[in-house]
Write a structure and sequence with these properties.
Length: about 90
């Protein structure tokens, strides 16, 4: 299951949510979408890390994005539940 990036309404930073089999659900605030592999985006993320600011401290979401996040978290929860049930049957 890949992560999803939910862009802030202000247009700069965003919320990255990802399911990891080792750690569980990870939620991070990023300056820009970490999945975009363009040179410009990589350089921007690297520069922010070098400055010590890979994360932002606030995110603004409209009602639709909140609903999308809730739907995605439910999808992760269902995926985890299904995975655990499949392991129990094995």
């Amino acid at each position: 299951m890949n992560g999803k990036f939910f862009k802030c309404d202000c247009g700069s930073e965003g919320l990255w949510i990802e399911r990891d089999n080792g750690f569980g659900t990870e939620i991070s605030l990023f300056v820009s979408d970490p999945q975009i592999r363009s040179f410009k985006n990589r350089l921007s993320l690297a520069w922010e890390c070098l400055k010590g600011n890979p994360y932002k401290d606030m995110i603004i979401l409209d009602d639709q994005k909140i609903a999308d996040i809730v739907d995605y978290l439910i999808e992760i929860q269902n995926y985890e539940r299904t995975s655990k049930q499949n392991k129990n049957y094995s």
